[in-house]
Every structure is written in C-alpha cells, then in structure tokens.
Design goal:
Blueprint: E1 10-11, E2 19-21, H1 28-42, E3 47-51, H2 57-71, H3 75-78, E4 89-91, E5 108-112, H4 121-125, H5 143-168, E6 186-192, H6 197-201, E7 207-210, E8 216-221, E9 227-230, E10 236-238, E11 246-250, H7 252-257, E12 267-269, E13 277-284, E14 291-292, E15 307-308, H8 309-320
Parallel strand pairs: 1-10, 2-3
Antiparallel strand pairs: 3-11, 4-5, 5-6, 6-13, 7-12, 8-11, 8-13, 9-10, 9-12, 14-15
This protein binds 2-oxoglutaric acid (AKG) and fe (ii) ion.
C-alpha cells in the first residue's frame, strides 16, 4: 500500500540522523569522541543510530521471535496478562490515544520493566512505576527469558551511552550511575499490523506523532521500516532500519533535566508496507525517585522545575492510555 498523503515523508539525509560507532566507548579517548558525536546529534535532531554496540544478533533475533510468537497468540491468551495501571502486560489495539492525535494508534503492545518481586521495598511502598512484571508464563513460557537476556544487554549499553551524555553535559562519566543502578528502563514489544483501508480512512498511524516521555529511547526495529522523525525544518523524514544498528533518541525527561540542551523530537510510525512490523523500544529511564533537577546541568530555565522521574512518566501514561481513564 502506497504511503498516504496525510503521512508524506522523504528519505533521511544521514547528516540529520547520524550513525555513531560506539565500539570504543570503554576507552577514555573513544568516549571523548563518541560523546562529542552523540552530543552533536542530541542537541540538533535528538536522534542518532548506534553501531558497534556488541549486542549479539542472536539475542536480538530471539527477542523478536518471542515477540512474534506472543502477538500471534489468541486474544484470550494474551488477555491473561491484560495491561494494568502499573503499565505491565498486554495492551490490545485501540487503547493508545496519544495527546493531540486524531484517533487511536493501530499498534498492540506488551509492557515490562526492571524485574522486581512483590517483596521489593519500592513495590511495597507504592513508588510510582515500580511494579511486578506480568509474564505470560502459562501461554508463552519463553517470553521472559528471551526478553530479559536482550533487555539486560541493552541496559548495559544504555548505561554507557548515559556516561557519554554525562561527560558531554560537563559532568563526570559516572554522574548517572546511581540513578541507573536499578532503573525504570521500561521495555515494550510493539506490533504494528499492516495498515488497512479503515486506518487510511481514519488517517490512523501505527503510532501517531509524539515525543517520548522518558530519558533515552533505545529502539530496535525489524526490516520493514515506517519510523519517521520530524526534522528541524518541520518536515517528516524516514528513519529506515539500518542492519546492525539501534535507533536512539532523547526523550522529554532528559530534555527537561538538561535545561533543553538535549532535544526530544517528535516521531511517528506508519506501516504502509503491507506486512506486519515489530519493534522493541527500551525507554531507558532512571530510578523512579531520581530528582530530575535542571540545576544538575547549569543555569536553570524557569520552564523546568524539579520532578521525580516516576511522577513525570506516570503523569504522561495517565494522559495517553485508556487503562488509566474512566469512561
Ligand atoms: O516502533 C518504532 O519504530 C517507534 C516506536 C515509538 O516511537 C514508541 O514506542 O515510542
Ligand atoms: Fe516514541
């Protein structure tokens, strides 16, 4: 199905979304160069690809296979882990209506996060967004082991990227370590069915235009394509899948934390390929009670006051997903 008029875009210029090779992030010299490259992107388009990340393709392939198997299950099976107001579990189509969008998104999602049990002190204390995962062990026993193996490697890499951003923002490379010891790091499996005629009539997107709520998004997309990013001129450009890379982008929480120095950019997904599309974003957010204090990075813009990470994200969830809304 051709791209409809309401979603016109053009192919990306690679100076707008650069590819940064992060293979030398463990050395001081490498980190200085990579930090400069990442900062240049984070302060302009807010988007960059990373290559040389060292995450094994096998881990990625197994996470995507587990995702396909899960979404292919009958709705009754998926509903055994129906999404709750801790934002854990399966959310069927029609439940995401992003702020400012004409209609709901076409996507289906499985949400999970940092894996804690019911005895965890933050769970017991009701700290925002810290919750027990809902794993569909009875109907998809492979999902938890495949996703957690993948997730923990992305978390490792995420910590290194945050180190590079810390030095770029004038702090020690270890600045974010405490906040990311047991991060929120929200994971999502996303399934975008092939666009239908109904979707086209409703001007529906797989995911309507939005900026991400958290700090840093680390996204793996399959080979289908459909991610579009709004550039500085306000045009929509395609961010196609590039083999061996992840797409990273700055979210609203880090824009706020950095006094707007790092930019959180609008993006959207349109799956006009005629095929199913799958992606796995990890929203790499700090621990819930982390104060997001713009004073950490210099002069304070009065637009940005101090909030905690968990409060900020919980607030955005409440405004964008049906499970939080009373009819
Ligand atoms: O699936 C994608 O390529 C992007 C997903 C996305 O933007 C999101 O879930 O916030
Ligand atoms: Fe997003």
């Amino acid at each position: 199905m051709a791209q409809p008029d309401y979603a016109a875009s053009r192919t990306v210029d690679f100076d707008e979304i650069p590819v940064v090779d992060v293979s030398e992030l463990d050395t001081a010299v490498g980190r200085a160069r990579i930090s400069a490259d990442i900062m240049a992107a984070a302060q302009t388009s807010g988007f960059f690809y990373i290559s040389g990340h060292g995450i094994h393709q096998g881990l990625i392939d197994r996470a995507f296979a587990a995702s396909r198997d899960f979404f292919a299950l009958p709705a009754d099976d998926k509903a055994t882990v129906q999404v709750n107001t801790d934002q854990r579990g399966w959310m069927g189509q029609g439940m995401t209506h992003l702020e400012g969008a004409k209609t709901h998104d076409a996507k289906e999602v499985f949400f999970w996060g940092w894996d804690v049990d019911a005895d965890n002190k933050d769970v017991k204390a009701g700290v925002p967004m810290v919750a027990v995962n809902q794993w569909p062990d009875a109907v998809a026993p492979d999902l938890k082991p495949q996703l957690m193996a993948y997730y923990l490697s992305v978390v490792d890499m995420g910590r290194k990227i945050m180190g590079a951003l810390a030095t770029g923002l004038g702090r020690e490379a270890t600045f974010f370590d405490k906040a990311y010891a047991a991060p929120l790091a929200r994971g999502q499996l996303v399934y975008y069915p092939a666009m239908t005629e109904d979707d086209r009539m409703a001007q529906r997107f797989g995911a309507a235009a939005h900026s991400d709520f958290g700090a840093l998004t680390i996204l793996k997309q399959d080979d289908v394509g459909g991610l579009q990013v709004q550039n500085l001129a306000g045009e929509w450009i395609d961010a196609p899948p590039l083999p061996g890379t992840f797409v990273c982008n700055i979210g609203d929480l880090l824009e706020r934390w950095s006094n707007g120095r790092l930019v959180s950019t609008k993006h959207r997904v349109l799956n006009s390929s005629g095929r199913s599309r799958y992606s796995v974003p990890i929203f790499f957010d700090p621990a819930s009670q982390t104060p997001i204090d713009p004073a950490d990075f210099g002069a304070v813009d009065p637009n940005y006051t101090v909030v905690t990470a968990g409060e900020h994200i919980a607030g955005r969830n409440g405004r964008n997903f049906k499970q939080y809304q009373k009819d």
